[in-house]
Design brief:
Helix content: 25-40%
Number of domains: 2
CATH architecture of the largest domain: 3-Layer(aba) Sandwich
Radius of gyration: 23 Å
CATH superfamily of the largest domain: Zn peptidases
Strand content: 25-35%
Strand order of the largest sheet: 1-2-4-3-5-16-6-15
Length: 388
């Protein structure tokens, strides 16, 4: 067996092609065409049209009935990429600003090693998932019967992480990435002339107090050892310079890992918004939606993942009980149905060499980490599907 790393040139060719041709959520037609062509050439059976543009590629060796999955996201973001990059996006207004091009290249690399070298007994399934960014693709694939058609005993995924040394893998049992819930609060008052505030019910003042009140939810209602975030991200009115508005619209989101904390955050946001508005003689309507499930790693699968990562990357490059991070991931929906492990792979620490933040117009995945992702995936599959 080799060291489970296809040539750097092969991985970069795949990654750079995918980076040049980004497609946003549920529009990943050319992307899945490309992936299916590569995987078909490697001997995988590719089933397409699952949850829209999703696909599952399968390869069986030996006699075991176990199936291990590797999941990659495929969609790009609606961001205009900075100019001057040799492999820059050719699709205006679309960009792989989150590294999904690299995630796909890693899965292709692992698929190539497993097809060409074997070393496993069972079925490898590659889950090619659309629409991770809006948090809709995983559920769409489940709703389309993916797990009934392509059963999985275990599922792995990863995401690159700027700010962590390149090629270092961080993972933990339990919650590793947070849920995301969105809220909108519309405060209804009675507008009027700015010169006569006594004649109106000012929703702007009530809205400002609601924003301040929401800052107490985490500080005074959530157990300090249970992570949570409440952020107000928008404040809009229908007023003018000389007119007190009639309505104020506050938008924001929350992050947490525990369903009980999610419930608490929603309840307190509703109570504070309606209560503060009422104290001002105004009225508040609260809309609260659940966008992303928390990504929760199965402890037993994670323990095996750590062992595989150490074997593939070396103990000095693996953190098996990292801190959780507050961004969200669509993988969490899949992890509710399949024993799963999601890891974070360091993209680098220096700007321009992997340290640029995700979702930035000048972000680019660090090609130097592709081999580490491949090696981890191959080791994980072989650990889950050992040969007799």
């Amino acid at each position: 067996m080799s060291d489970a790393r296809p040539s750097d040139a092969r991985l970069r060719t795949w990654r750079h092609h995918l980076h040049r041709h980004p497609e946003t959520a549920f529009s990943e037609h050319a992307t899945v065409d490309y992936l299916a062509a590569v995987l078909g050439g490697l001997g995988y059976d590719v089933a397409r049209g699952i949850g829209g543009t999703g696909a599952v590629a399968s390869l069986t060796r030996g006699t075991s009935r176990r199936a291990a999955g590797l999941r990659t996201d495929m969609d790009a973001l609606p961001i205009q990429e900075v100019e001057g990059r040799e492999h820059g996006s050719v699709n205006p207004g679309a960009m792989h600003a989150c590294g999904h091009d690299g995630h796909m290249a890693m899965v292709l690399g692992a698929a190539a090693v497993l097809a060409e070298e074997g070393g496993f007994d069972g079925t490898v399934r590659l889950v090619l998932q659309p629409a991770e960014e809006p948090g809709r693709g995983a559920q769409a694939m489940l709703d389309d019967g993916m797990l009934e058609r392509f059963p999985l005993d275990v599922l792995y995924g990863l995401h690159n992480l700027p700010g962590v040394p390149a090629g270092h893998l961080h993972v933990r049992p339990g919650g590793i990435m947070a849920s995301e819930d969105n809220f909108t609060i519309v405060v209804h008052g009675r507008g009027g002339h700015a010169a006569r505030p006594e004649a109106v019910v000012d929703p702007l003042v009530a809205g400002a107090e609601i924003v301040l009140a929401l800052q107490t939810v985490v500080a005074r209602n959530v157990d300090p050892v249970r992570p949570a975030v409440v952020s107000c991200t928008g404040f809009e009115t229908d007023g003018a310079r000389n007119a007190i508005p009639s309505t104020v619209r506050i938008t924001g989101d929350t992050r947490s890992f525990d369903p009980q904390v999610q419930e608490l955050l929603e309840r307190r946001i509703r109570e504070l918004a309606t209560g503060v508005a009422a104290a001002h003689g105004a009225r508040a309507e609260v809309t609260y939606t659940h966008e992303f499930a928390p990504t929760v790693n199965d402890p037993e699968v994670t323990a095996r993942a750590v062992t595989a990562a150490v074997a593939a990357l070396g103990a000095g490059r693996v953190v098996g009980d990292c801190d959780p991070v507050m961004p969200s991931e669509d993988f969490g929906v899949l992890a509710r149905h399949v024993p799963a492990c999601f890891a974070l792979l360091g993209n680098g620490t220096e700007p321009g060499r992997g340290g640029t933040p995700l979702h930035s117009a000048d972000y680019d995945l660090n090609d130097d980490i592709l081999g580490a992702g491949v090696a981890f995936y191959v080791a994980a599959v072989r650990a889950e599907l050992p040969t007799p």
